Amino acid sequence: MSVSPAPTRSARPAGLRRFLTERPPRPERCELCAVAVAEDDHRHLVDTEKRALVCACTPCALLMAQPGAAAGRFRTVPARYLTDPAHRLDDSAWDALQIPVGVAFLFRNAALDRLVALYPSPAGATESELDAATWTDVLGGTPLAELLEPDVEALLLRRTDGHCECHLVPIDICYELVGRMRLLWQGFDGGAEARAALDAFFADVARRARPVGGGARPASDGAVRP
């Protein structure tokens, strides 16, 4: 019986070379037309059949923003940010939500015709199992709830130092926040790095947001016009 010589240090199996050689990252591509898009600057669509976010180039995003496009399967995530400085939520109302962290976001699932409430956690997006009446009580005082576009926008809430921020935002940035918190979370309360990232995230939202009723209106391309 013949025995093959042991491989030398330089003779690596071909199947392992892909793990040992640095490769450039694969470019992001539009899920509809496959054109390359900038990793940190492109639009998103909601695939309402798969309940998933997909990347899109600007022409495809504009196309899917038109009524009846793709029989409604894909919906373009708008780019508007609104805030309601007058919305008040006291400690007892927040406690009724039974959310263990100070951040939550809600969106309306068109297929189920109900609000879905989620909050970031070390495990990712966690759903809050509360009845619709409770959420109606919490959101009944803000006009943002009536402006909310199903599937593609969310109401983003943050409770800090007895004050609650309430913003209407694109749904994709909520999942961006979830991913960031999952990556940075440490210990019971998230840790200093996660809290700093959370502060920076909400500072950016506040910079982008316009007060509700201030004359902002969504355009057909999902942007906000004064």
Gist of the model:
With 226 residues, the chain is an alpha+beta fold.
Low-confidence stretches: 1-13, 215-226
Radius of gyration: 22 Å
How many E-type strands? 14
Give the SSE string. HEEEEHEEHEEEHHEEHHEEE
Strand order of the largest sheet: 9-8-7-10-11-6-12
Strand content: 25-35%
Overall pLDDT level: 81
The structure class reads alpha+beta
Broad shape: globular
The largest pleated sheet is described as: 7 strands, mixed
Helix segment tally:
7
Helix content: 25-40%
Distance N to C terminus: 83 Å
Task: Write up this protein.
By secondary structure, the chain is an alpha+beta fold. It is 28% helix and 27% strand. It contains 7 helices and 14 strands. The strands form 4 sheets. It has a 7-stranded mixed beta sheet. A 3-stranded antiparallel beta sheet has the order 4-3-5. Strand 13 (217-218) and strand 14 form a beta hairpin. Helix 6 (171-184) packs antiparallel against helix 7. The chain starts with 13 loop residues before the first helix and ends with a strand. The model is unreliable at 1-13 and 215-226 (pLDDT under 50).
